[in-house]
Amino acid sequence: MTLAEILTSLFPDGHEVGVADGLVAGHGPFDGKSLAVIGIDGNTPLGIEGACTLAGHVLAVVRAGGDTPILVVVDSDSQRMSRRDELLGLNEYLAHLAKALLLADASGHPTVGLVYGHTAAGAFIATALATRVLAALPGAHPSVMDLPSVARVTKLPLDKLEAMAKTTSVFAPGLDNMVKAGAVHAVLDPETPLGPQIAALIAGIAPDDVRDTLGRDRAGRPQAHAIAARVMREAHGG
Amino acid sequence: MALKPVTFSADPGDQSWYEASARARLAGLLDAESFQEFIGPEQRMMSPHLPLFDLPRAFDDGMIVGRGRLDGQAVLAAAQEGRFMGGAFGEIHGAKLVGLLRAALAEAPAALLILFDTGGVRLQEANAGETAIAEVMRAIAQVRAAGIPVIGLIGGRAGCYGGGGLIAGTCSRLVVSESGRISVSGPEVIETNKGAEEFDSRDRALVWRTMGGKHRRLLGGADAFVGDTIGAFRDAALTQIAKAPAFDLATLEAEQARLEARLARFGDCHDATEVWGRLGVNDPDAVPGMTTEAFDALLARLPEAPHDAR
């Protein structure tokens, strides 16, 4: 689905969501109240200015109070890779955006991510992965790094990686593999209105971070949950 | 960067942080004999994924977590071993830190310390590592919201790159040494994707002044700059615990203002020396060669201290 199709499905009565320089911001009527929308469109890389702008929108929602949910729609590239972005502290800007979303969620504004295109690496962590519940649409392509880049870094032949990717979800790019890892909670149905599907996700939000139990149940991260639980037990005993 | 000459002191506090292993850093950072590891290497909880790539494993998966005392205060601590897989986040490695942060909510330590030494996500377990980083950031927000400072210490050989840089930006306070490089895309990643004209990764001086500890401290990306000894990191960690900001709207609005002001003031700078000049450093070219003492003196006489809301 395109962003326009998503917004039409979410807000059949209209909305005030706009896109400028690849950044999405606005709101629309939702479930009897308002839904704030931020995000990245058009496979845009996320740099220092974009992260700062989006974080400002999130903090404005928190400052306004209430319980307005925040939808984070994502079709991005990775973080913007440049000398200037790193010189000026890209890690702080991306972390700030993630913290703003985490604060919003903790302050009573449920955060829902919706990946409808690409996203990768630091941009993925700072946006979609910083929401409480992350959904995706079929055809979305979240990843950490594409396989040719993985091949360069790991010095493994690309054809071998491509063959391994068919059977090994833990390193392979793509939506199915991110679902198995527990990073993506649910894949939505583009044939039915998105509003009720998003509302159901918000209604079903768990108080705790359930991604490692999802990863265990879906066999994409077999051990993470057990290891974290074991650390907690050992910290509590002895 | 200036490495400390070899020391013959038996005091672990005098040892080089950069040269030390993760275990040696923990042993020297915390009160003597106080560290108690959770899921120690004897339990052999190793990566289930690395054998697929014919890669060797480590009994601790490059992440050491446990409890100890810092000047008598109960703390939890995690240390990454940069010499194993570049300290990268895999499934077990990341889950140990997630578990430690969740434990902090129940155990309420005086602080949680993270000794970063990482290239970011371990690509052989990329999805597990990436998701673990997201879990770590959520857990840090919860731990900070509970009033427990999360202090990051950065000065290892692998630096603090990729998702590690994002986690660092989520901490309450950061202590760096000159070798404490913090960035998202590493020099090689930028060069591979954008070309050597954008970033020449072999130009080590460029790497240090763009991502190194001095620049991060001057810019406000870190809160304390220390010499390369375990003792210096210990002293700074103690000082920073007491200064940890709350995790609330006021702090994040202050950070928003700080980051917006940085864009307005330095957004057209091409090199760190231009940033330093605008900060009021009279001789920016001299900064990379400064001793810790000279750099401290420089920080003290800058017209304005960097805002450090984070």
What characterizes the major β-sheet of chain B? 7 strands, mixed
As laid out across the biggest beta sheet of chain B, the strand order is: 1-2-3-4-5-6-7
What do we call the CATH homologous superfamily of the domain at 3-137 and 188-205 in chain A?
2-enoyl-CoA Hydratase, Chain A, domain 1
CATH level-3 fold name of chain B: 2-enoyl-CoA Hydratase, Chain A, domain 1
- CATH superfamily grouping of chain B: 2-enoyl-CoA Hydratase, Chain A, domain 1
**Helical amount of chain A:** 40-55%
| C-alpha Rg of chain A (nearest Å) | 18 Å
Strand coverage percent of chain A: 15-25%
Shape of chain B: globular
- SSE ordering of chain B: HEEEHEHEHEHHHEHHHH
Please state the second-level CATH architecture of chain B: Alpha-Beta Complex
Rg of chain B, rounded, reads 19 Å
> Mean pLDDT across all residues of chain B, rounded?
95
Short description:
Chain A has 11 helices and 9 strands.
Commentary on this structure:
The complex is a heterodimer of chains A (238) and B (310). Chain A has a domain at 3-137 and 188-205: 2-enoyl-CoA Hydratase, Chain A, domain 1 (Alpha-Beta Complex). Chain A contains eleven helices and nine strands. The longest helix of chain A has 17 residues, at 48-64. In chain A, 45% of the residues lie in helices and 23% in strands. In chain A, helix 2 packs parallel to helix 4 (90-106). In chain A, strands 1-2-3-4-5-7-9 form a seven-stranded mixed sheet, sandwiched between helices. Chain A has 238 residues and is an alpha/beta fold. With 310 residues, chain B is α/β, with parallel strands linked by helices. Chain B has one domain (13-246): 2-enoyl-CoA Hydratase, Chain A, domain 1. Chain B has eleven helices and seven strands. Chain B has helices spanning 22-29, 91-107, 126-145, 163-168, 187-194, 204-211, 213-219, 230-241, 249-266, 272-279, 292-301, and strands spanning 36-38, 63-70, 73-80, 111-116, 150-154, 173-177, 224-226. Chain B has a seven-stranded mixed sheet with strand order 1-2-3-4-5-6-7, with helices on both faces. In chain B, helix 2 (91-107) links the parallel strand 3 (73-80) and strand 4. In chain B, helix 6 packs parallel to helix 7 (213-219). Chain B is globular. At the A-B interface, helix 2, helix 3, helix 4, helix 5 and helix 6 of A face helix 2, helix 3, helix 4, helix 5 and helix 7 of B.
